[in-house]
Amino acid sequence: MIKGLIFKMLLGKKASSETYINYLRKKGAKIGDRTIFFSPHQISVDVVNPWLIEIGDDVQITGGVRILTHDYSWSVLKHKYGEILGSVGKVKIGNNVFIGSDSILLKNTDIGNNVIVGAGSVVNNKIPDNCIAAGNPCKVIMSLDEFYEKRKKKQREEAVALAKAYFERTGVIPPKEIFHEYFFLFEDGSSLINAFNKKLELTGNFEESLDALKKNNNMFRNYDEFILKCNLNVGVSKFV
User: Fold this and answer.
1) How far apart are alpha carbons 47 and 67 in whole angstroms?
2) For residue 238, what is the DSSP state?
3) What's the pTM?
4) How far is CA 221 from CA 5, 158, 179, in A?
5) Who's near 169: CB < 8 A, 6+ residues apart?
6) In contact, 105 and 65? CB cutoff 8 Å
7) Fewest CB within a 10 Å sphere: which of 55, 66, 128, 165?
8) Per-residue pLDDT tens for 20-49?
9) Could you say which DSSP state residue 118 is in?
10) Per-residue model confidence (pLDDT) at position 239
């Protein structure tokens, strides 16, 4: 508790996602429900013109992200020509959007719904709905449907690699909970450990996710079969 109070005193408005979002709302930014700022002390949101910022529902903004509604490059023009030429514009983020770490959203950014923006992207244009976009300048690289199919195909490969890495490092058969992002491979939804239920609760659609799990055509009948197919050297292991 004391550590929490000290942390809040040191970071102030950026002590948590909730405190930072409340601060931005009071300043005039429009921010929807269930939006989260991860590591808010590493995130910078321009409050010179906060009413130019609109962020929708279910948006995930990760560490190092910067949101800017103005730039000061006109200072060079002023010094050269004497004139002040303003440079401001809106930043709009739709619903169900993920902004990757260290991305920069410049003025005149308009990101649609159901969009993933890759880490380190620089955005100053319109990104349509239902896509994956990345780069500098940020541009569409594939549709959300294409990304969905790509990720589904990678699940077994990545889960097996995770199991092997854990086993090689510890000499122990990996416990179920480390597969909290891959349990759709072997669970049927009838009885889930807490770590898996917590993942289903994310983004506010628990029932929909649970229904998807129950209807899922599992790659493995159960966890034991999954571990067996990982081809671990169980002879030197200790089960947990």
Assistant:
1) 9
2) B
3) 0.89
4) 47, 18, 15
5) none
6) yes
7) 165
8) 999 999 999 999 999 999 999 999 999 999
9) P
10) 45
**Run of H or E residues at 162:** helix 144-170
Q: What is the DSSP string of 37-68?
A: ESSGGG-EE--SSGGGEEE-SSEEE-TT-EE-
The predicted pLDDT at position 233 comes to 75
**What tens digit of pLDDT does each residue of 172-206 get?**
999 999 999 999 999 999 999 999 999 999 998 99
Long-range contacts of residues 225-233, Cβ cutoff 8 Å, at least 24 apart: 225/186, 226/159, 226/163, 226/185, 226/186, 227/163, 227/173, 227/174, 229/160, 230/160, 230/163, 230/164, 230/167, 232/163, 232/164, 232/167, 232/173, 233/167
**Quick one: pLDDT band at residue 10, thresholds 50, 70, 90?**
confident
In sequence order, the 6+-apart residues with CB closer than 8 A to the CB of 92 are 53, 54, 55, 109, 110, 111
Please answer whether residues 203 and 215 qualify as being in contact, where contact means their C-beta atoms are separated by less than 8 angstroms: no
Percent helix / strand / coil, the chain, rounded to 5: 45, 20, 40
Bridge partners (DSSP) listed for residue 142 = 132
Most distant CA pair in the chain, distance: 78
The token pair at 58 is 């279910």
Q: How far is CA 124 from CA 51, 88, 116, in A?
A: 18, 12, 15
217 three-class SS: coil
